[in-house]
Amino acid sequence: MSTPSAPFTELVNLASRLLGAGVVGTNEDTFADAENLLVAKPAEFRAHTFGHKGQIMDGWESRRRRGACAEQPHPTDEDHDWAIVRLGAAGVIRGVVVDTAHFTGNYPETGSVQGASIPGHPSPAEVEAAEWTDLVPRTALRGNTAHEFAVDNETRFTHVRLNIWPDGGVARLRVHGEVRPDPRELDGLSFDLAAQEYGGVAEAASDRYFSSPHNLNAPGRATVMGEGWETRRRRDKANDWVQIALAGGGEVLAAEVDTTHFVANAPGWADLVGYDAGAGGDPSADPDGWFELLPRTRLQPDTRHRFRLNADRPATHVRINVYPDGGLARLRLTGRLTEAGRAALALRWFNALPAAEADAALAEAGLTAAEATALTAARPLADAAATTAAVAALQPTDGPDGEHTSRRRAAIWRLLGI
């Protein structure tokens, strides 16, 4: 009997190559390239398949470590190998999977995972020199096993580092979590509000028998039918659906409903409905709160359908209903954040920043260094009211207090939209 996966494995893989993840450094991968850690498909093994460096392994494998001399032939307890991965999307990590599939006589004895937040586009040397935080402490590993480790840390990370002692092979590394985009990069833009890279999540679905609803808002185009979302055949009079939490509350201006590769199993029709949870509503418990974005519309097989939508109401969630069943390759929802949506997204981002980055962002927006440090220390900020109260509690440093209040409010508005 197989062991059920941890709940965090249903979250987005932040280390996905599709999102833009990459290996930026490793100290050793003589036997097998560290880039294999990020391959999307499960690791494979073909016995007695040898290259000029030995058995070809579908994973990352370092050479066997040796000691310093004949009198000390064994590596020390601290000798280890490592690989650093730039996440495809920065976010809060909820769990990692360290998979030693097919490594049986050559797996590491122990391993650990660390995280770092490095703004901008750092060089490999700058990444190596970063301050690293333990996410998974050094722990024993087994061969041919997918090790699932939950992570309890609310910080936004951009990179992870996999350490193995003393050497050996790991087939795959998955880093599951919640995307926390920098709101300053989205200001004034229309973008795909449903996209994983900006924090959109397929959070519920009626059916995932053949493939995952997370494929609907994955990056890029589906290259085969299996990279979309497909349901089993219905034998009742109901319909199938997927509910997506958008990156933030926004005006959904247009949709692309893509049935590419679905020829004999495309839905016959689809509609789109929206829900605004900005006032604290719950879309799963409020069936009357949904409103129409696109009426039930006929679909064609193997076709990218584009629709302009009725955007007179903001939405935080969108549900696509397909009739009666079938499969979709992708769903794109082009729109722009509302002021409230941008503020909520920005607050989630700000609360997750490392303290030094939060201080820098506040100072760049217009607070003094002392004010920035004080406001960062007041996190987490629950909402606009809590943020306003924290700003009001800052002590004046110079000039009339009214000037302080006005300047601070302007700075917080520039950064958080609050």
UniProtKB/TrEMBL annotation:
<keyword id="KW-0378">Hydrolase</keyword>
<comment type="pathway">
    <text>Nitrogen metabolism; (S)-allantoin degradation; (S)-ureidoglycolate from allantoate (aminidohydrolase route): step 1/1.</text>
</comment>
<dbReference type="InterPro" id="IPR008979">
    <property type="entry name" value="Galactose-bd-like_sf"/>
</dbReference>
<dbReference type="Pfam" id="PF03561">
    <property type="entry name" value="Allantoicase"/>
</dbReference>
<keyword id="KW-0659">Purine metabolism</keyword>
<dbReference type="InterPro" id="IPR015908">
    <property type="entry name" value="Allantoicase_dom"/>
</dbReference>
<feature type="domain" description="Allantoicase">
    <location>
        <begin position="20"/>
        <end position="179"/>
    </location>
</feature>
<protein>
    <recommendedName>
        <fullName>Probable allantoicase</fullName>
        <ecNumber>3.5.3.4</ecNumber>
    </recommendedName>
</protein>
<comment type="similarity">
    <text>Belongs to the allantoicase family.</text>
</comment>
<dbReference type="InterPro" id="IPR005164">
    <property type="entry name" value="Allantoicase"/>
</dbReference>
<feature type="domain" description="Allantoicase">
    <location>
        <begin position="199"/>
        <end position="336"/>
    </location>
</feature>
